[in-house]
């Protein structure tokens, strides 16, 4: 949880991928909650997992029956398998991305007019325009002056193809694209 102060207004920000599954409940129970769903290319996310040697804690998901009941059976089978058996971070990352973004598609269908859905790559390409959209959505005044004129709100989290290829093999990239395409295509990836 992070607190930001904008003039006379405060906003609390909760950034938690697992809490993402509770976004609907939070939205329904907290008046004036503003939900922003950040969408990111699966290749970029999985590259980060591998580069940072981050392990995906499926055991935490496995302990939550209500959460598991939201997933298709084939995903639950993989969660069980990845919890107790060694699995490649690429395979784990593919499943994790699909879990998150399948839910994001459901949310977008249900709350597309009330919530804000933003692709990270769009934010990076059109930072000022997208940041103004975010501020407007949150009913905050967009700052007129920034401390440093060339300071960006958002440093590039997407990665160049060159760096991607140093971390992920061409085979791994192809596997990610093929395995996530059924969901990723709805967000405009890999067309």
How do the strands and helices of this protein lay out in sequence?
Elements: E1 2-6, E2 9-13, H1 23-29, E3 36-39, H2 42-51, H3 58-62, H4 65-68, H5 73-84, H6 89-111, E4 116-119, H7 120-125, H8 127-137, H9 161-167, H10 170-184
Parallel strand pairs: 3-4
Antiparallel strand pairs: 1-2
Q: Supply the helix-strand structural class.
A: mainly alpha
Distance between the termini: 35 Å
Mean pLDDT: 85
Proportion of residues in β-strands: 5-15%
Number of helices: 10
Order of helices and strands: EEHEHHHHHEHHHH
Tell me about the largest β-sheet. Answer: 2 strands, antiparallel
- Number of E strands: 4
What is the topology, as strand order, of the major beta sheet?
A: 1-2
Fraction of residues in helices? 40-55%
Radius of gyration, whole Å: 18 Å
Given as residue ranges, the uncertain stretches (5+ residues, pLDDT < 50) are: none
Apparent shape:
globular
Describe this structure as you would to a colleague.
The protein has 191 residues and is mainly alpha-helical. The protein is built from ten helices and four strands; from the N terminus they run ββαβαααααβαααα. It has helices spanning 23-29, 42-51, 58-62, 65-68, 73-84, 89-111, 120-125, 127-137, 161-167, 170-184, and strands at 2-6, 9-13, 36-39, 116-119. A two-stranded antiparallel sheet has the order 1-2. Strand 1 and strand 2 form a beta hairpin. Helix 2 (42-51) packs across helix 6. The model has no long low-confidence stretch (mean pLDDT 85).
């Amino acid at each position: 949880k992070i607190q930001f102060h904008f003039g006379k207004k405060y906003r609390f920000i909760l950034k938690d991928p697992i809490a993402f599954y509770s976004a609907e409940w939070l939205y329904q129970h907290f008046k004036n909650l503003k939900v922003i769903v950040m969408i990111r290319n699966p290749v970029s996310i999985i590259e980060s997992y591998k580069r940072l040697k981050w392990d995906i804690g499926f055991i935490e998901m496995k302990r939550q029956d209500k959460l598991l009941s939201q997933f298709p059976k084939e995903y639950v089978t993989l969660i069980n398998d990845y919890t107790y058996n060694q699995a490649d971070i690429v395979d784990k990352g593919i499943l994790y991305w699909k879990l998150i973004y399948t839910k994001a598609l459901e949310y977008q269908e249900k709350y597309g007019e009330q919530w804000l859905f933003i692709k990270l790559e769009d934010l990076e390409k059109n930072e000022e325009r997208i940041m103004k959209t975010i501020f407007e959505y949150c009913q905050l005044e967009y700052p007129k002056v920034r401390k440093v004129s060339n300071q960006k709100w958002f440093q590039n989290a997407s990665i160049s193809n060159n760096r991607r290829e140093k971390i992920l093999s061409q085979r791994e990239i192809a596997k990610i694209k093929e395995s996530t395409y059924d969901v990723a295509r709805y967000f405009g990836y890999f067309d």
